[in-house]
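Supplementary Methods S3. Input chains for the assembly prediction are listed below.
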Amino acid sequence: MSGPEGRGPELPDGVFRTDAETVDAHRLDRSGWVPEGRPFGVALAESVADVRAVLRYAHATGTPVVTRGAGTGLSGGAGATDGSIVLDVSRMNRITEISAVDQLAVVEPGVITADLDRAAGAYGLRYAPDPASVAISTIGGNIATNAGGLRCAKYGVTRDSVLALDVVLADGELISTGHRTVKDVTGYDLTGLFTGSEGTLGVVVGATVKLRPVPAATATVAAYFDDVASAAAAVNAISAAGLQPSVAELLDAATLAAVEEVTGPDPRRAGRAAGAFLLIQADGSAAEAEARQIHAVLAAHHAQVFTAGDDAEAARLLDVRRRALPALERRGRALIEDIAVPRSRLAEAVEEIQRIAKTHAVPVFTMAHAADGNLHPIIVVERATGTDSGTDSDSGGGAQGAPDGDLGANVWAAADAIFTMALGLGGTLTGEHGIGVLKRKWLADDLGERNLDLQRRLRAVFDPTGILNPGKAV
Amino acid sequence: MSGPEGRGPELPDGVFRTDAETVDAHRLDRSGWVPEGRPFGVALAESVADVRAVLRYAHATGTPVVTRGAGTGLSGGAGATDGSIVLDVSRMNRITEISAVDQLAVVEPGVITADLDRAAGAYGLRYAPDPASVAISTIGGNIATNAGGLRCAKYGVTRDSVLALDVVLADGELISTGHRTVKDVTGYDLTGLFTGSEGTLGVVVGATVKLRPVPAATATVAAYFDDVASAAAAVNAISAAGLQPSVAELLDAATLAAVEEVTGPDPRRAGRAAGAFLLIQADGSAAEAEARQIHAVLAAHHAQVFTAGDDAEAARLLDVRRRALPALERRGRALIEDIAVPRSRLAEAVEEIQRIAKTHAVPVFTMAHAADGNLHPIIVVERATGTDSGTDSDSGGGAQGAPDGDLGANVWAAADAIFTMALGLGGTLTGEHGIGVLKRKWLADDLGERNLDLQRRLRAVFDPTGILNPGKAV
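Predicted C-alpha cells for the full assembly:
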C-alpha cells in the first residue's frame, strides 16, 4: 500500500488490513474502554522489518500507531483511537533462544507468557512473572505494562526480569538497550524506561529476559480469618519472621461470598465467619519448613489454617482464589482496579474500600497481592445489553462492553474515592496494569505537576511528533 | 555569597567554601583521574534547602555542579572540573525512618551505606547492596553509580533496592519519584532512571530503600582450582543446580600469587596449584543444606573444597578474598576496571584478560563477582612519586595519584583491549562503577550511536543548560 500520493514510505505488502472484521477484532483491549471513531487499519506484523516499515510510514504521514499484543490490557492502553494504525505484533511469537547457562531467553514480543514459561521448563527453568493473564497475554504486553502477578511477592515484576530490549523507534530506526549481562551500568537505564511505557516510547520487537530455576518444592497454606485486619497483620508477621512467600493472595469477605455463591460454603471453614481468605505459597528447597512456620504464624492470628498435604489438596486451596474473578463476572461487568499501598496500610485500604462501596452504593470486591500491598478493588456493574463478558476464566481480563459514559456517576465517584484513598495512604494508582486511558485523570495528583511535565518531555525525546499511542499514559 | 553583581539567587550562607584546603579535599574521587583546572568552590550542604539554593545559583549563573558523597567513585564521576561548584552532600547523613513492617528505610544521601545496614540490624533487617566500599561510601553515591557488591549475586544491585527518591532538579525545584509501595507502574520509571545517572539528571536529596530480613543463617564454602575454566564451570553448575549463592567471588592465579606473597602459601591447598580461588556463601534458612550441595558441586569440578565449620573458619576463608586488593596495592597503583559479561563467558573473559596482559606486558589481576559475570581486571602500575595509594584496606577504592596522561601507552592499549573483548563477548563496559570520565571513550561502541544520542537528549530534558556534572557519563 502506498503512502500519500504514492510517494514516501509504504505500508508493507500483505500485512496491512482495513476490512471491518480485522479492524473490529483489534479495536479494544479488556478494560471496557471503547475509543471514539475507528482506526485507519491494522498491520499484522510478522517481522522486525514489518514493524520498521509501519513506523516509517506512520512517521512520514503523522499517523498514530497503537501497538498491541494479545489485547488483554486492563487500562485501555491498547484501545485503537480514531485514524490510528493498530500495530499487532502477536504473530511475532518465536522464542529465539533459551540459554540454560546464562539462564535467559531471547523472545519476540508476541510470545504468550505461559508458552515461554513452558519452554523454559524443558531446561529446568521458568519465567517468574505470572500475571493472572499469563495464559493469554504476551511478553510484549507484559513489558509494555510492567505486568506483575502472583509470584512478584518473591520474584518481582516484569521489569525485574528484563535484561535487554530491541526497540523500533518512532521513525523506524532499530536500537538495542541493555545487555545479556546480569549487571550493567553503562548509560541510563533505557531498558527499565521502556518497560512499563505502554507503547509510547517505541515498539519492543525483541526481549532478553531472565529465567530462574524451577524451585525444588512448593508448599501451599491457606487460612480463613474473621476479618481483613487479622489477615493483613498475619501477612506482615510472616514478612517480619524473615519469610518470603512466593504467593500471598488475599480475598475479602464480599469476594468470598461471591465464590461461595457458586461453590456452596467451604466446609473447611466449618461455619465460622469468612471475613478474609489468605492463600500463601512458599517455594525453594526450604518450602516445607517455611510452610510450617507460616502455618504457625497464621494460627497465632486466630485463623483456621490448612497446609496442603499433596498436590490435589493444594489445587483445592488454590481453587478458592482461582474462582474469584469468574464468580464476580457472573454478577456483571467487572471493572478491575489496581492500586498499591505500603504493606503496612493494607488492612486500612481494604476497610476504606468497603466503606467507599457502602457510601456510593456500589458493589466493590477486593482481591490483593497481599505481600506487595497491591490491591484489585473490583467494581461490578450491570452488563450493557448486547455485549458479553469477554472472559470466562481467571484470565485477568476485565469485561469488554459499554463505553465509560454508560457507567453511573456513583461508579466514577467510588473509583475516584478509591484512588484518592490510595494516594492518601502513600500509595499509587496502579501497581501492575498501567495508566492507559482510564487512570490519566488522577496522574497529576499522584506524580505532581513537575514530575509529570518531565515525563512528557521525556516522551517527546522518543516520539517528537507524537505518533506513538497518543492520548495514553503520561 | 551573592550571585553575579549581587542580584539573583545567592549561595547559602556558611555553606560555601573557597579555601584551598577545603577545595583540595574535594577535587578527586578514587579513580585516579585528576581534572584540569580548579573548582570555583565547595558547598557543604546540610539540608535540602542548601542543595536547592546551590542549584538555583548554579542555574542562574550557568555554573557547573559536581555532586559528591564520600568521593569513593572509581570512574572519575565526582572529579571536580574547572570552575565547578562541588556540591558535597555528605553532611546530609540522617536516617529519617526505618519501618520494620514495610521493610524500608528513608535516608538522606550522605548516610554511609554500612551505617544504614547497621541501623537496620536493630530491626532484624539489613540493606542488601554491599559494594566493597560499603564502610566508606554513601547511599547517595551508591545510587549515583547504581553500585553493586558481593551480595548482588542473590539480592541485585542498588537499583533493585531503591523504591523512591527526592531529587532537586537543575533549576532547584524538588520532585519526588516512586512510592513507598513495592509495586508501582504509574508513569515512566524515573526512580530507575536517576539510579545510575552519575549526578547528571538531578541531585538525590532523599531515598526510600528496601530492607530485607537478616538471613537466618549464612554458610561459607571456598575452593582452590587448577584453572579458571574449572572454577567458572563450577559456578555455572551451581546455578544450573537451582542454587542461588549470596556471594560467589573468584580470584585468578595472579591475584592469588599476590595474596600469598603477603600471607605465605595457604596450607589448605597443600602444595597444589592455585589456578583460581572461589569463595561462595549461601544464606537463608536452607543455607547449610545448600552449602553441602555447593561443596559437592565444587568437588565434582576437581577443586579442593572447604566448608567453614564455624564463624572463625568462615572469616579465614573470607580473608583470602579480603586481602586481595591490599596485596595488589602493595605492588603499585591499582586501576580497577569493571566489565561484565554473560555468565557463560566468564572463563573466556578471564583467559582473554590474561592473554591481553601478556601481549601488552602489563600486570593485570582479575577478581570477579562470578555469579554475575562481573569482572574487575585490575591493572597495577607504578605509583607516581609524591602521591600515596589513598587506600589501605579492601575499601573498593582505587588509587589516587597521577593524572591519566602519566599512564603508559601499553596500559591504555590493555584497557582498550579489555573493553573491546568484553563487548565482543556480549558484555558491557561497566557492571557497577559507572562511566564517569574514564569509560566515555568506549561508550558509543557499547551503546550504538542512536542509543547514545537518545540518552543525550534525555539528559537535556533534565538539564537543559548542561550544568549537572558536564563532561561525565553519557
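Chain B is about 30% helix and 20% strand. The first helix of chain B runs from residue 20 to 25.
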